[in-house]
Amino acid sequence: MSADAAERGYIHGNALALGEKGLLLRGPSGAGKSALTLALLARFQLQGDFARLVADDRVRLEALGGGRLVARPHPAIAGMVEIRGAGLLRLPYENCCIIQGVVDVAAPGANPPRLPEEADKSVTLKGIALPRLQVRGCDDVSVARIGFFVQSIMTN
């Protein structure tokens, strides 16, 4: 990501709306954020829940009053998600969502701590504290953990 993109508030990550909750996925390139995004969208939709892409690869974060963190897609790639080896796929998307939790996806080969310290269970972005989960990548266990994490997030 260029310095210009970072200055305009874009971070490397994905944002999605799952039910009534917004989720931010962060992690290095190749960690599986886009694959996790697709798996989570499919899982929630199969359950009959609302699930929609907000942003893939570049997410603009903006702090609003009341402790709300809004995520928006980069306009040049809104509604597109990368499928490694296949290219870009266009999906229905939302223009924004309120982020209520953060999932950090570990780099390939790395494992998150089995029992994270209390301080590692939250993160502060743009001055807003949010619950945080660390996962290993895109596998069935990570998708299940994220599903439980989303259910556990309290709605403000």
Specify the biggest β-sheet.
5 strands, mixed, barrel
* Unreliable spans: none
Helix run count:
3
CATH class: Alpha Beta
- What is the terminal-to-terminal distance? 32 Å
SS strand fraction: 35-45%
Q: How would you describe the oligomerization state of the chains in this entry?
A: single chain
CATH superfamily: P-loop containing nucleotide triphosphate hydrolases
3D structure, described in words:
- The protein is globular, with a radius of gyration of 14 Å.
- It is of the alpha+beta class and 156 residues long.
- Helices cover 21% and strands 40% of the residues.
- The strands form two sheets. The chain has a five-stranded mixed barrel with strand order 1-2-8-5-4.
- The protein has a single domain, classed as P-loop containing nucleotide triphosphate hydrolases (Rossmann fold), CATH 3.40.50.300.
